[in-house]
Structure formats: C-alpha cells, structure tokens
Amino acid sequence: MPDVVVAGHVSFDLFPVLHGPVVLEPGRLVVAGPVRLSTGGVVANTGLALHRLGVDVRLIGRVGADVFGRAVLDALREQDPALAAHVVVCEGEATSYTLVFNPPGVDRSFVACAGANATFTAADVPERLVAGARLFHFGYPPMMPLMYADGGAQLARLFESVRATGAATSLDMCGVDPASDAGAVDWEEVLAATLPHVDLFAPTLDELVFMLDRSTLNRAALDRARLASLSGRLIEMGASVVAIKLGESGLYLRSSSERASIDDLAARIPVDAASWRGAEVIAPCFEPDVLAGTTGSGDATIAGLLAALLRGADPLAAATAATAVGACSVEAPDPTSGIPPWEQVVARIQSGWRRRAPAFGLGAEASADATGTAALAP
C-alpha cells in the first residue's frame, strides 16, 4: 500500500501568456502569447508534489474520455505509470479544465469547469484503495456538487469511512464562486458534519473567511487574533490540526489542546503527541530564486506539510517544510516540476535559505529563529 492516497478534484489547466491586465468586453480582441498547459487540481498538484518529494502516493480521480483527459493521464504516466492507474476515465463526461489568467502585476483569476468532478461521490474511493495507507488527503469539494449536497453528507461519509481504516485524514478546499451553487451552500454546516472525521484541515484564509464569516472578507482586517479565532472554531468542530494558507505571508498552523484528539493523530502517523498538543505557529515564506508562477503553490505547500508529518516533524518543522516546498513550487511555471526530492529541500533550508519577514504580529515564541531545521529528518 502507498503511504498517502490523494483523491478528489483533477483538471487540465491552460495558462495563456498575457502582456498586461485583461478586461474582457463584448467585441474586444485581447492579444495573448502562447498557452502553457499543465495538470491541475489537488490530485495532480498535491499528489505529484508528494511523489517528487519521495512519498509513495496513490491518486484517485475522474477525467473524461477526451483530449484533456488523455493529456492528464499522459502527464501522470510520464512521472510514473502507476500514478494514472486509479484515475477513472468516464465515458460521456468532460474532463475538468481551468483557464488561469495571470497578467503581470495583477492577481490571478480563474474560469473553471467541474467536468467529471461534478459526479464524484464517496463511492469513487473504495475502501480497498485506502486500507493500509497511513494518510488520506482529499481536495476541492466546492468543485464537486455531489460532495457538498445535503449538508455535505457524501463528504462526511467519505471521511468517516476512510478514518475507520486507520488512516489519518486531511482535507483541502478551493475558492468558491459566490454566484455558483457552491456559493449558496451553508459551508459551516458542511464543515460541522465533516471535521469530526478530519485530522488536518487546510484551507486558504480567503476560503475560510468566505465559508465562516463573509462579513470580514476584507483580508487587511485579519490579524493573528482573527486567525486564532477562526482556527479555534474549526478545532471546536472536530479538526485536530488546522493549517491556514496565507499566500505570500506564509502558513498559520494550530493544533487542538485536547489530549484525546492529538493522541489519536499520533496513533495514526508518527508524530510526538506532546509537541503537537496546543501548538500555534506562523511560518513565513521563503524567498524563491525566481518567481515563475504561483498557481498550485498552496497545494505544494500542503504536500510539504504532509510529507513532514509522515516523517514525525514537530509543528514548527512541519510548517517550515510546508513553506519551503511551496517556495520551490513557484520557481517553475507549473505547480510541481520545481519541487526537488525531500533531502534537497531540507538541505536548502539548513543552508540558510532567506525568509520573508514574519506577518500578523508573530510572538517571540514562534518567530525566534523560525526555521525548524533541527527536527527535519532527511
């Protein structure tokens, strides 16, 4: 069995090269450069990142019987033929695709089609493909209507059944279009049903605010106290560890102080329960040598976090590894080809890799020499 099973959303991403800000207006032509193509979604991004870090991983997803689907499978097989073995080709369905608009000096925007992900259910993750794995990671339920329908019944059922196999469980999110069906969902209800079966919950700050408190969508108003408040609500719902991705500001990591919750996590993966109980860390980003593209860097960050957890890292070391892998990701145009083996990531950290200044009012207990290198086993 693999160490990690990654399941959920998979897509084919298209990145038109843009020369400046784009305003799409009726009848207007926008001149662009060549299009860059890449696999996308949590299955490809986090899954391939883990594979490149040396983690034995199994991928589960759905694609259509079309040219995009063939491209996704070919890209996975190029890394390792086994990676495509459990990505199901769905006749009569389209492969999910995403158009990524990333003009110079402007934040990214996306146009996404759910495709075959729209019919993904808990039954697409049979127990035989998970039993024996140490960790299960699932991502992007907002792009999977059947997983969030009925208050997230399918999502909760999936995590409950996977956790019963003995695997630790991890859940990632994605952005929500407010005008879509997902935008009308009571996400607090979905999370309340699912998080009792989730060990690690890893949303972005913007996703979390949209789901729990849309009245504070102005990110500038969010500080460490607000992060603590939001993560505290998630821990009360049942998550053992909350990792909030902060973009260029790094990663906020907080774990439950409940002994039973963390002891159970430590029974599933080889972490020291005492070091993880009641932890709170903010890990600043590392400075990349070159910024080639940021799409998928959040998925890569979580891959680094999961890889560190499987190696028994403490909270500071795990968050450090996560931001390091995220920084490696942005040094290549696609989400994963810039990620080296784990040993090289650790060596780069230990060589004194420069980091950005801490954000959100870091306290001395977390900011002093926030490298965590001593606990990062090669």
- Cα distance spanning the termini: 22 Å
State the helical fraction: 25-40%
Which outline best applies?
Answer: globular
User: How many distinct folded domains?
Assistant: 1
Q: What is the structure about, briefly put?
A:
The strands form two sheets. The protein has a nine-stranded mixed beta sheet, sandwiched between helices. A four-stranded mixed beta sheet has the order 3-2-6-7. The protein has twelve helices and 13 strands.
List the helices and strands and how they pair.
Layout: E1 4-8, E2 11-16, E3 35-40, H1 41-52, E4 57-64, H2 67-79, E5 87-90, E6 97-101, E7 109-113, E8 135-139, H3 145-163, E9 168-172, H4 187-194, E10 200-202, H5 205-212, H6 224-237, E11 241-245, E12 251-255, H7 259-268, H8 273-276, E13 280-283, H9 297-310, H10 315-329, H11 342-350, H12 364-367
Parallel strand pairs: 1-4, 1-8, 2-6, 4-5, 8-9, 9-10, 10-11
Antiparallel strand pairs: 2-3, 6-7, 11-12, 12-13
Helix pairs in contact: 1-9, 3-4, 9-10
Overview of the structural elements:
The protein has 378 residues and is α/β, with parallel strands linked by helices. The chain has one domain (4-10, 42-92, 117-370): UDP-N-acetylmuramoyl-L-alanine:D-glutamate ligase. It has twelve helices and 13 strands. Helix 4 (187-194) links the parallel strand 9 (168-172) and strand 10. Helix 9 packs antiparallel against helix 10 (315-329). The longest helix has 19 residues, at 145-163.
